[in-house]
Amino acid sequence: MKRNDPAPPPILLQWEGLVQDLFERTSGFPVRLRHTLSERILRLALDGLECVVEAQDASLRFSAVRQMSVILDKIRLLLRVSNRLGPLDHKAYEVLSEQVDELGRMVGGWMAAQTHRGAR
After folding, report:
1. Which of 97, 98, 94, 92 is nearest to 76 (CA)?
2. pTM of the shown model
3. 115 falls in which pLDDT band (50, 70, 90)?
4. What is the number of domains present in the chain?
């Protein structure tokens, strides 16, 4: 990062952390789930990361923030399925769920701020 570059927004850093953890924790999924469940979780997480970037543009913000919320709901669901099917142990599930919940709080705050301002 250059000296004059602004610090990345906290939500971007949090989402990058989630993506990294998801890559690490889903890499051990069995082959039968790696190309379905694991791949879907990772694609959603990467889509969410792209939404964070899009939300930096004020004209795209409301739509991008709403999409982030939907993506987090989908990730939550797929993490539960992964835990129930076995490739994601309980401890990993708890850690990832907490990260998703924290992102949900951040996104919710951003959404509330946008709604309060009347942005659409």
Report:
1. 97
2. 0.89
3. confident
4. 1
